[in-house]
Design brief:
mainly alpha, 298 residues, 57% helix, two-stranded antiparallel ribbon, 13 helices, globular
């Protein structure tokens, strides 16, 4: 999903997330910089936070990202808001942002951050990597430690979210340590985020099956016939195993981060569920005009 600028109160955060999205779609930072009319070096410095965004850059960035006129003005107001030193100037910028927002209000980034932390596996991985013996907090080092599955810019954005939600504490020398804080948000955000997270880590498992040697992984899978009234017990046993496994793996010194995925799901369909699905299919055929004679409903 393309980041929506109206859900941000930080131009830098928006730029990071949008560039990450463009990279996942196959674009490069060099091409983005060219479309913006900026040097590759300058864009990288913006992303790394080594150079602050200025209002004069808003037009070029908006053009390169394909933002419309109102979104460009919103980006300009965000940049001005972040750079404001005077409380009165910040208040004026907030008013401007409110006027430019389609709903007439500024959306807080916390909900966006919470969804990203719940839905994107990189955040939990970073929290675990921070406990490794040879931990290096540099985004480039973390990206390399994750086997180039992510970019340094994605790591930098993830660290920023973890900081803003109080999930990590930065210490002297740039090192950070996980706190005991928990992400608490609306149930719908948790539900949507959890589904996205599980899909991502299952993709990581598929990749590991092909890339990692047998001695570095363990895959077990089987089908079993079960009475419906035993499912609550099955869930309880899985949760107990998870707790026991984490306790057993605890050590003063650790060298690697592993991902443990446990899935229990239904392979067969009950007759009632199958009948309901068939009825929906019949209704779809009745109401949908078929474009080709022998096409099946999608």
């Amino acid at each position: 999903m393309t980041p929506d600028i109206y859900q941000y109160q930080s131009a830098h955060r928006f730029l990071l997330d949008r560039v990450n999205r463009e990279q996942k779609s196959g674009d490069s930072i060099r091409n983005l910089a060219k479309r913006m009319g900026l040097s590759h070096t300058l864009l990288v410095m913006f992303l790394q936070g080594k150079r602050p965004l200025r209002v004069k850059h808003a037009g070029a960035i908006a053009q390169g990202l394909g933002l419309d006129a109102q979104a460009r003005l919103y980006l300009q107001a965000l940049i001005q808001f972040e750079g404001a030193r005077d409380p009165q100037e910040k208040q004026l910028c907030q008013l401007w942002l409110s006027e430019l927002h389609p709903d007439g209000a500024i959306l807080h980034t916390r909900v966006v951050d919470e969804f990203e932390v719940i839905s994107n596996w990189i955040h939990m991985a970073i929290l675990s990597i921070a406990s490794l013996r040879d931990f290096d907090p540099a985004p480039e080092a973390i990206a390399a430690r994750l086997g180039a599955k992510v970019t340094a810019h994605e790591v930098r954005a993830a660290i920023s979210r973890l900081k803003s939600l109080g999930l990590i504490r930065v210490e002297a020398g740039g090192r950070f340590v996980p706190t005991q804080a928990q992400v608490t948000t609306q149930n719908d955000v948790i539900s949507q985020g959890a589904r996205a997270y599980h899909k991502q880590v299952m993709d990581l498992a598929k990749d590991a099956l092909d890339r990692q040697p047998l001695e570095a992984r363990e895959f077990q899978s089987f089908a079993i016939d079960v009475a419906r009234d035993r499912i609550p017990l099955a869930k309880e046993l899985i949760r107990k195993f998870r707790t026991q496994f984490v306790k057993a793996m605890k050590a003063d010194v650790t060298e690697e981060v592993y991902q443990m995925n446990i899935q229990l799901f239904q392979l067969t369909e009950s007759p009632a569920a199958r009948k309901s699905a068939e009825d929906e299919g019949v209704d779809a055929i009745k109401t949908k005009k078929m474009e080709t004679p022998n096409a099946y409903p999608s």
